[in-house]
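Case study.
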Amino acid sequence: MTNFPDGFVWGAATASYQVEGAVSEDGRGPSIWDTFAHTPGRIADGSTGDVADDHYHRYAEDIRLLASLGLTAYRFSIAWPRVIPTGDGATNPAGLDFYRRLAETCLEHGVTPYATLYHWDLPQPLEDAGGWLVRDTAERFRDYAAITHAALSDVIKNWMTLNEPWCSAFLGYGNAEHAPGRTEGASALKAVHHLLLGHGLALRALRSPETSIGIALNPAPVYAASSSEADRDAARRADGLRNRLFLDPLLLGKYPSDVLEDTGMTDWFAQYDADLPVISTPMDFLGVNYYCPQTVAAPDGPITDPGKPSTLPGSENLVAVDTGLERTQMGWPIQPSSLGDVLRMVNDLAPDLPLYVTENGAAYPDEVTADGQIEDTERRSYLEQHINVCQQVISGGLPLKGYFAWTLMDNFEWSFGYSRRFGLVHVDYQTQARTIKHSGHWLRDYLTT
Ligand code: IFM
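After joint prediction, the assembly is written out as follows.
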């Protein structure tokens, strides 16, 4: 066994649109990702999540595989359009039944279910009515969360409201890399507010003594490329948009004023001060999805390219600096110690709040050898180094309670389609055959021997 404390949670994560497929079955309605993926040019390999890993039909096999890796927790997401196909209207019992079967199968295998209520698949009719740029969506999210929790709280005790609202807001409404593919400039910050409000409203609606509720964010340590004033200011702006814009309202009950000023959104946000107590409703835990740090500098001159909208409205004039670190296939620099930095950053703001690493992993261009092996040495090393950092931060006194690898099995990696594999388990998309990679075998040995 590992040197981690008793009760430390070991799991793997997935998300509905990335694995389920079965997009038109049993009454599921369309989501923004169905629309986006079916729009030519949006997904690098022209693929969609129509079939994905066929997890909707193969979930029992997948949960058995997860348990066979020595993992005892499964973080999955619930597709809002399966539960309420139009987003706001009749509930679809077949959709709820699927998640009941999934949770019950977990429990039969000694696996604790951790459900995320929103991992980006907004029902399309809600986007047509304004999406996350309008307040109504936050209220519809609360209703969906309450219905889902009421139906499943006997089998699911651990809940997350949102996954990575930074991506929903800035990639969805900022630079159009994600669904719904809109470029709204600084108005993407309205999506931030409505997502956080939805989180707070749902948290209040779900609160019960048996339920543990949190959120999964993707904060990243931001380093200045040099100690120059300009580079430090670039780091301040990047940190503001990536981290403080989410952590401050959630944990401190206020928005960072410099970010609102940089983006010209001060007046818009001033109207909604009354939402902050809702947004900062105390959580039971905070999930950190960590992949890589950012190192930024100020450019020598203006670099804004008006043809390419910025992901970070208000911080267009930033350059990402290559510090020479090795990178994964996503181009993300590998710096395990930064996982410690990000966990300490959150812990400094909320010293008693239990933390989980709710995602961590790496994409590499895996190859299947002639004898059917996937010798993913780099992924194994990535996981091992990051798990070692988890151990160090626990020794340092941080309340880190669990680690979820991203991801159980290769799946639809959003705008990259199936061209990026993060799984502990390889998926042959032609046959749907699952094969445990060497990283998965390593993790099983690490956890069980
Ligand atoms: O695949 C995604 C996941 O859906 C959210 N966090 C990052 C992962 C890798 O890009």
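Observations recorded in class. The CA atoms of residues 176 and 182 lie 5 Å apart. The chain is about 40% helix and 15% strand. We will return to this complex in the next lecture.
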